[in-house]
Amino acid sequence: MLELRSISKSFPGVKALDGVSVSFAPGTIHALLGENGAGKSTLMKIICGIYGPDEGEMVMEGQRLQLRNTFEALTHKISIVHQEIQVVPRASIAENIMLDKLDRYRRRLAIDWKRLNREAAEFMTMVDLDLPPETPVAELSAAQKQLAQIARALSDGAVVLLLDEPTSSLTLHEAHRLFELLRKLKVQGVTIVFVSHKLEEVMALCDVVTVLRDGKLIGTRQRSDLTREQIITMMIGRSAVERWRGVLPVDREKPVLEVRNLTSGLFRNLSLKLYQGEILGLYGLVGSGRTELAKTIIGEYRSEPGAVFVRGRRARIDSMADSLHRYRIGYVSENRKEEGLILSASVTTNLTITVWDRLRSRLLRVLRPAREIHQAEETIRGLDIKTPSASQIVNNLSGGNQQKVSIGKWLVADCDILIVDEPTVGVDVGAKEYIHDLIWKMAKEEGKSIVLISSDMPELVQLSRRILIFKNFAIAGEIDDLNERERSLDETSIRIGGYLA
Question: Is 287 left (phi over 0), alpha (psi -120 to 50) or beta?
Answer without folding.
Answer: left
